[in-house]
Amino acid sequence: MVIQLFALRALGTDDPVRIAGFAKDTEWVAMRTFMPAGLVLVAGGIWLVAEGNWGFNHFWIVFGLAVYAASFLTGALFLGPESGRIGKLVDEHGVEHPEAQRRIRRIFALSRIELLLLIAVVFDMTVKPSF
């Protein structure tokens, strides 16, 4: 959530250098903190379900795992590669290039959608709805 707040501040400046720098910093932080933390979190959750008395057939567990898988795949198959493509575009044409800025904004928009889904998972894991 904090990353999204900083993203909104950076986007609000309309400063291409600040926006590109923030995008680069976000990619660095995500690869070194969010991805490992997410892996530890899902491994711990799977362990708790396996050792507990829930089982993997509850909606709230399936929903949480499905959203986590979608988030992981989005990062691995789109966000990571797209960040690399944006980096090359910036190296070739500079941070102010309209296509680079458009792609950075697209990544930020997608990550806001992903954040909403992850918040839904937190709610799901807290409330544990049964359908």
Give the arrangement of secondary structure elements.
Layout: H1 2-13, H2 16-51, H3 59-93, H4 98-127
Describe the model.
The chain is mainly α and 131 residues long. The protein has one domain (2-127). The protein has 4 helices and no strands. The chain has helices at residues 2-13, 16-51, 59-93, 98-127. Helix 3 (59-93) runs antiparallel to helix 4 (98-127). The longest helix has 36 residues, at 16-51.
For the structure shown, list the relevant keywords.
elongated, 4 helices, single chain, mainly alpha, 0% strand, 131 residues, 86% helix
Précis, in short:
This protein has 131 residues and is mainly α. 86% of the residues lie in helices and 0% in strands. It contains four helices and no strands.
